[in-house]
Amino acid sequence: MNRYPPPNDACSHEELMKVEVSPIEQIHPAARFVLMSMGGLLVFLLGIAASLTPSPDGYGTHRQLVVPLLGKGENSQLPACSFLVMTGKPCPSCGMTTSWANLMKGRLWASANANVAGTALGLCALFTGPWMLISGLRGQWLFGTLNERLILLVGIGLFVLTFGNWIFRLLSW
User: Fold this and answer.
1) Rounded CA gap, 115 and 152, in Å?
2) 8 within a domain of the structure (yes/no)
3) Which of 4, 18, 105, 133 has its CA 20 to 30 A from that of 74?
4) How many domains does the chain have?
5) pLDDT attached to residue 81
6) Which helix (H) or strand (E) holds 43?
7) In a domain, 98, yes or no
8) Where do runs of H (alpha helix) occur along 52-114?
9) Residue 164 covered by a domain
10) 33-85 confidence digits (pLDDT tens)
11) Burial label, 11 (beta-carbon count in 10 A; 0-12, 13-18, 19+)
């Protein structure tokens, strides 16, 4: 004999055994396009960085890039950093291409020496680029959905790191 009566809202055994499984979240076609575009762009940029020879100066690696629209021969290369040429001081992104080129060659310390924020951005691209591309191609999130709070924190952190690194480099230039 059970001393405790069942509660008034007791469920039957069948109702307790029901398990609702949510379907795998499909990504909206427009979002898939954005994911594939951005992920593909990041993977493409990482590939370009891997093909470059890092400048021993810690900046200026971007000068190896050839843009046919700029002309032919020497004229088709990207120019030196205008901010650096005009002020004699580095801009916030000076050394980022060198940083990415070093990172793609596995030289983490050289990458950080060129531009710490570039290393952080490169590491983010190394993980998020393929994740975005694969998620977009599949139409389903790989390893779960986006966490908006994490994206915001990483974005703010990268912003603060970029400008903090720039101020440090300006003071020590």
Assistant:
1) 22
2) no
3) 105
4) 1
5) 87
6) helix 29-51
7) yes
8) 82-87, 96-104, 108-114
9) yes
10) 999 999 999 999 999 999 999 999 989 999 888 877 767 767 778 888 889 99
11) exposed
